[in-house]
Amino acid sequence: MSFDVPDDLRYRESHEWIDPETGRVGISDFAQDELGDVVFVELPSEGDAVDAGAEFGVVESIKAVSDLYSPITGDVVAVNEALFDAPELVNEDPFGDGWMLELDVDEGDLDDLLSADEYRDQIA
């Protein structure tokens, strides 16, 4: 099976992605497929601080409960509140309407993340 891995994003080995331009964060197409139908998402509040590699929330599916890990250190500048009423957006559009939060981006933090090609190799 082939998964969507947008070239303009950076990835954690734990399957979270970040858009370096906007600071928008979510989980990959591969991760949402592995989880199955997402039924609940727990996210931090706007203004909360998160650390790179630290847990920032939880996604619950019919198969499992999985922790979410922040790709970078930063402050939460936006939260996708639509997910609280429609967690299935994570499955339907993981790189679009299924985004989870936005962080303020410091370019240096992106150096430890995987490129799209490196992430494709990981999930192959």
Automatic annotation (TrEMBL):
Residues 22-104 form the Lipoyl-binding domain. GO terms for cellular component: cytoplasm; glycine cleavage complex. Keywords: Lipoyl. Coiled coil: none annotated. GO terms for biological process: glycine decarboxylation via glycine cleavage system; protein lipoylation. It holds the Pfam family GCV_H. Transmembrane segments: none annotated. Binds 1 lipoyl cofactor covalently. SUPFAM superfamilies: Single hybrid motif. The modification N6-lipoyllysine is found at K63. Its cofactor is (R)-lipoate. InterPro entries: 2-oxoA_DH_lipoyl-BS (IPR003016), Biotin_lipoyl (IPR000089), GCV_H (IPR002930), GCV_H/Fam206 (IPR033753), GCV_H_sub (IPR017453), Single_hybrid_motif (IPR011053). The glycine cleavage system catalyzes the degradation of glycine. The H protein shuttles the methylamine group of glycine from the P protein to the T protein. Belongs to the GcvH family. The glycine cleavage system is composed of four proteins: P, T, L and H. This is Probable glycine cleavage system H protein.
